[in-house]
Design a protein that fits this description.
This protein folds into 2 domains: about 200 residues, Rossmann fold (3-Layer(aba) Sandwich), CATH 3.40.50; about 270 residues, 3-Layer(aba) Sandwich (UDP-N-acetylmuramoyl-L-alanine:D-glutamate ligase), CATH 3.40.1190.20. Helices cover about 40% and strands about 20% of the residues. With about 500 residues, it is α/β, with parallel strands linked by helices. The radius of gyration is 26 Å and the shape is elongated. The two termini are about 20 Å apart.
Length: about 500
């Protein structure tokens, strides 16, 4: 897995490396060399430079391009430079590299590539004036765009921008920054790579998950094994208004595809006829209900949850006072692993969160932004600006794993935090969150409720969604299409995890 840092940690790490004896000038050269080696340069290149060290990277890159026989022009946006940047600017002048000042008449039509070195990761605020103008010109140019360290205008921590460069390639320097992954980042970055230039990490970091990180979850299965080893899991949900028989069946199917031994669907007695025709491999258990809503019955809950390794609760559950009693009882008395999603999260938001501190089970919460707002009382816009910090604080305070869904999923227990950068636009459809819950509870049949297990579930769901989108299209995709590709996604992950030892 790759470390991910916030801007302040990156700044501290850079400063510590310089204090340890590596000059800023040397780091600037290494950064430029990393960018140079990350792309097969083909024609005349424009390098748009702002101020500070990001501009210095651009000047150093111009020298390398010239040495490599690539014609380039430096387009200056500012007279202000760091001392290291000024050094490389002077080198460009001495080597007679073309340098011009940006004006409203500047035209990028003659260039093959445009390199964005306007702002670095420290940028805050709104892009205005001539910088906004040049960013819009870059985005409308139709040329290949390479951003150095971060797309200019994109917030390095949150990945939010009012206006920013849209790149075909972004070359991150040192460590990945969270703003390269969160919120709008996926929509403005075509391909993302990171180059190591010898900066030592100072401070805490989060991690971007990769397939090989889940090898311990995908342990090879013994021939001499049985379904009980891989866990009995249950899905408790549905109500008269949201019976969603097919959707509930998809949940069970996703759980089985993810590897549990047995998937049990628990619904209201009155939904039996609606759900039964759609269940093949899954089992069905019924609970007493009134008007299609499950009633709290301690004896019956104990019966259906006996021997269950994991439980997913809340999908299509609706709203009922009985749900409060059921969820509180589960949290206080069930000793397995519990995933709470959808209406389960809305129910939890109505309860005293102190019940989480008194729980008998391991808990994973899987909110989207609006559900997170209800849980923690923080406005959505504030969560978007700090999804990692807010999720970490909530998880740490209540002793749970939070899986905050988004274009890039954040998974944390408050101490260890993973980013899962899988998924696609086609998954923005009803039921995709339910599919994730099904996959995750399937994993929980044989794996603990840790951030790594939750991240694995998000990775499988995201990869399956990508495969579905490739075979269908992002507009016509259904959540069931993601379920249909879960097996293929896991096959690809198994191949990657075990390709070096012949186990796949």
């Amino acid at each position: 897995m790759q470390p991910i840092v916030d801007v302040s940690t990156m700044r501290a790490s850079d400063a510590a490396t310089i204090a340890g004896g590596v000059s800023g000038r040397e780091l600037m050269y290494r950064a430029a060399k990393g960018v140079y080696e990350s792309y097969p340069w083909q024609g005349k290149t424009a390098i748009v430079c702002g101020s500070g060290n990001n501009a210095g990277d651009g000047y150093a890159l111009a020298l390398l391009l010239q040495k490599g026989g690539i014609a380039c022009t430096v387009v200056r946006m500012s007279e202000s430079l760091s001392s290291d940047g000024a050094f490389y600017l002077e080198q460009c002048k001495q080597n007679e590299i073309e340098i011009c000042q940006y004006t409203a008449e500047t035209d990028f039509s003659e260039y093959t590539e445009i390199v964005d070195c306007i702002f670095g990761t420290g940028f805050r605020g709104e892009v205005q004036g001539s910088v906004k103008e040049v960013i819009e010109k870059i985005n409308q140019s139709g040329k290949t765009v390479i951003s150095v360290d971060i797309n200019s205008g994109l917030n390095g921590d949150s990945g939010i921008a009012s206006v920013c460069v849209h790149s075909d390639l972004t070359v991150s320097i040192g460590f990945l920054k969270s703003g390269l992954l969160l919120n709008q980042a996926k929509d403005v970055i075509g391909r993302l790579v990171n180059v190591d230039i010898g900066i030592g990490l100072v401070g805490n970091c989060r991690y971007l998950t990769e397939v090989k990180d889940f090898a311990e979850i995908f342990k090879p299965r013994l021939q001499d094994s049985h379904k009980g080893i891989y866990g009995y899991v249950s899905i408790l949900g549905g109500c008269a208004e949201y019976a969603g028989a097919v959707k509930l069946a998809n949940l069970s199917c996703a759980a089985l595809r993810a590897g549990c031994g047995v998937a049990q669907l628990i619904v209201a007695q009155s939904l039996a006829d609606a759900v039964s025709p759609y269940l093949l491999e899954s089992t069905l258990s019924l609970l007493p209900d009134q008007h299609g809503h499950i009633l709290f019955d301690k004896t019956q809950l104990d019966r259906v949850l006996a021997k269950q390794a994991a439980l997913a609760v809340g999908m299509g559950w609706g709203s009922s006072p009985e749900n409060l009693k059921i969820l509180e009882y589960i949290l206080r008395h069930y000793k397995g692993r519990v995933l709470i999603d959808a209406d389960g999260l809305n129910t939890l938001a109505q309860m005293e969160h102190s019940v989480l501190k008194q729980k008998a089970c391991q808990v994973i919460l899987t909110p989207h932004l609006k559900e997170m707002e209800r849980l923690c009382g923080t406005p959505i816009d504030d969560i978007r600006r700090d999804p990692v910090g807010i999720s970490e604080r909530f998880a740490r305070e209540f002793g749970v794993v939070v899986l905050l869904k988004g274009a890039c999923t954040v998974v944390t227990d408050g101490n260890t935090t993973y980013f899962v950068n899988r998924g696609c636009a086609g998954m923005a459809t009803a039921g995709s969150g339910d599919v994730l819950s099904g996959i995750l509870v399937g994993l929980l049949g044989a794996s603990p409720a840790t951030p790594l297990t939750a991240a694995c579930g998000a990775f499988i769901a995201g990869l399956a969604g990508e495969l579905a989108e490739q075979s269908i299209n992002p507009i016509s995709m259904l959540a069931s299409d993601t379920v249909a590709h879960v097996a293929q996604a896991i096959s690809l992950m198994l191949d990657e995890c075990f390709k070096n030892n012949g186990l796949s």
